[in-house]
Amino acid sequence: MTTPRAVERSLSELNLLGPDGWPAWTQVLQKSYKTNYGRSEDPVYLHLASKTRLGAVTLLAVQFLDFLQEDGRYVMFQMSITDQNLLSTIQSNQVGQLAWQMPKSREYFHLTGKFYICSAPRQVTRYSPPVLPHISGTAEDLATQRQVSNQFWEAKRVEQWRKLPPKIRASYTWPMSGSTPKAPSTSFQCLAMEDLTQQEAVGRNNNRDSLMSQDGTPYPMSSPSSPSSVTSFRSRWNSFAGGATSPTTDEAPAPLSPISAKIRNDNPAKILHDIALDNFCLLLFKPLDIVHFESSPLPPKRTIYTVDAAGQWVVTEANP
C-alpha cells in the first residue's frame, strides 16, 4: 500500500526541473517527438484553437519548426507575414491551445500558452519575442537588453531560414494563403529557392540555379526578356520597396527606375529571395499548461504540467 508520504515524495520528484534546468515537460515532449518522427522530413502540423476579440472560435493548422535549444520553455513554428488568417488570429488573442497527436506512440499533448511573433526587422507586428534573461542578463539597462534580445531572435530567424528545404522557402514568395487568385500563374512558378543569406554577391549563373521551376528550367524572372517575368518582378519589387502596385497584364508596363532596373538585371534572384525572407516569421509558443495523455500503458497515464503563481512548474498525475 502506498503511503501518503510516498505519494508526497513522488510528486516532489516530479516537480523538479529537467536536467538542463528546463521544465520537466521539455524532455518528455522532445523525446516523444524523436520517437514519432525521427529524421523524417515530412512537415508536422498541429491544430491551433483560439478565440478572436469578438468571441469567434478559430481552428487553424500551424507547422512545427523546431525546439529552441537555448531555452526549453519555447517551441518554434513557422508563419508567413502574408498569412492573414493566422496573423490576425495571433494578434487578436495571444493565448491559444495546440493539439499534438503523436502518430506512433499513441499519446497526445494538449498545450495552452502564449504566442510571440518574431518577424523581420522591417515588419511591424504585435507580441514581439520576449527578452531572455540568460541572453541579455549582462546588459545594464532595459533598452540594451531589448537590443541584445532582438539581435538574438533575428539570428535565430535567419538560422531557421537556412534550414528550410528549398521548396518551403519558395512558398514564401506566393500570394496570401486562402485568398482568391488575382495574380497571374507566374506567381507560383518559383518552386525551389536556395539560401542566399551567406552570399554577398550572386552572379547571373547562380541566379539561374537558385530559382528553379517544376520542370527544372530556370525561373522566368531570371530572364529579363520575358514580359510576364518583368511584370511579375515589378509587382514583387514594388511590394518589397513599398511602392505602388504593379499594372495589370493588359496595361502598358511603366518604365522601371534606373536603380530598380539595374538591381533586376544584376541580381533578380537575390531580390526575390530577400522578399521571401522578409515574409518568413518565427512563431514562438510558450506553454503554460500541458496535458500529456499516454494510451499505450494499462491503465492509461495522464500527466498535467501547470505553472503556479510563483512561476514554478507543478506536475500532477491525474486519473486517465
UniProtKB/TrEMBL annotation:
Signal peptide: none annotated. Residues 202-216 have a biased composition (Polar residues). Gene3D superfamilies: Electron Transport, Fmn-binding Protein, Chain A. Residues 202-234 are annotated as: Disordered. Residues 218-234 have a biased composition (Low complexity). It comes from the Eukaryota. This is Pyridoxamine 5'-phosphate oxidase-domain-containing protein.
